[in-house]
Amino acid sequence: MLKYILKRLGLSIIILLGVSIIVYTLVRCMPFDYVEQEIAKRGGQNKAILQETMEALYKTTGLKDPIIVGYGKWLWNLCRLDLGKSYTSGDDVINVIADHMGTSFAIAFFAMIFEYLIAIPLGVTAATHQYSIRDYVVTILVVIGLSLPSFFFARLLQGLFAANLGWFPVQGMVTTGYETGFEWLGSILWHMVLPMVSIIVLGIGGTMRYTRTNMLEVLNSDYIRTARAKGLGEGKVIYKHAFRNTMIPIVTMLAGVLPGLFSGSMITEEIFGIDGIGRIALRATTNVDVPFIMGYNMFLAFLSVIGVLLSDLMYMVVDPRVKLA
Fold first, then answer.
1. 216-275: per-residue pLDDT in tens?
2. Which of 60, 127, 134, 172 is least enclosed, having the fewest CB within 10 Å?
3. CA 310 to centroid of chain Cα atoms
């Protein structure tokens, strides 16, 4: 197994290098850059001063360098574990990510737990009661979860439960005046309810559909019919034999869980005013903050390749028949 892991890690380095080239090229090929936006914000100043400011910014950021030269500088700094400084904040990119990642991780982690606790049982019960009222209700929930745009559903929750009914805060992470103690913690949890509901509802549909499809496939297998023919109880057939094998393809979803925990929800965080990494990334993309965009995307790419590796290794846990060569 050690040889397999080392081989995969070596391949991951090549993958990450390719991802960095693609992302850097795409960012530099955008129709505008950070300097142009900064100059546009200062449009009322003297033209000579604006020209000097533009030249100074281009010299500082290196955005006038050819793409291959700029990428070479970025890669050299990366080899020294230096992701550069964010154009917008002036802080080190790695510090900006570390400062805002915890909030996004906490929201995504608890949302994921509730999502799986709700989606997997619903998917199983829909499969075991195929074409029943229960199955149709689950199908409707799946369609809703897959169809609603995140910005629309988040605004809907915000307008109904926060602005109109006043049950929850409209935006922010904590009520002013609460700095320590249980009131501070309770305020944070109260602010996180609507964002988490938005994430859970929009993500639950795909997991339910995936679970239902895999469960139906397993229930139609020969060994399930054999187990029933031997007189095993339906509960034992479903939850001991069928459910275990249903989890095998669901494990592949773990590859997307790891980066999802740290990436943040850009639209949701922006709408609810949550100071997470997703909101920072959205603003950095709008401002064409090249160092932060590169650092953020490479961080997620690294988590993705690690997630895929962990997914492959988890196959052995849920299915002892799988052997890694």
1. 888 888 888 887 888 777 777 787 777 777 777 776 676 667 777 777 778 888 888 888
2. 60
3. 17
CA distance 74 to 135: 52
How far apart CA 258 and CA 105 sit, in angstroms, is 10
Question: What's the pTM value of the predicted model, to 2 decimals?
Answer: 0.80
Buried b / exposed e over 254-277, threshold 16 CB at 10 Å, is: ebebbbbbbbbbbbbbbbbebebb
Other CB atoms within 10 Å distance of the CB of residue 1? 10
pLDDT in tens, 130-170: 888 888 888 887 888 778 888 888 888 888 888 888 888 88
- Two tokens at 14? 């090549």
Q: In whole angstroms, what is the distance from residue 322 CA to residue 249 CA?
A: 13
Kindly tell me the burial class for residue 15, based on how many C-beta atoms sit within 10 Å of its own C-beta (0-12, 13-18, 19 or more). middle
Average pLDDT taken over every residue of the chain: 82
Model pLDDT, residue 68: 92
Burial class (CB in 10 A: 0-12, 13-18, 19+), 199: buried
Contacts of 153 (CB under 8 A, 6+ apart): 198, 201, 202
Q: Locate the DSSP E strands across the chain.
A: none
Q: How far lies 101's CA from each of 41, 104, 279, in Å?
A: 29, 5, 10
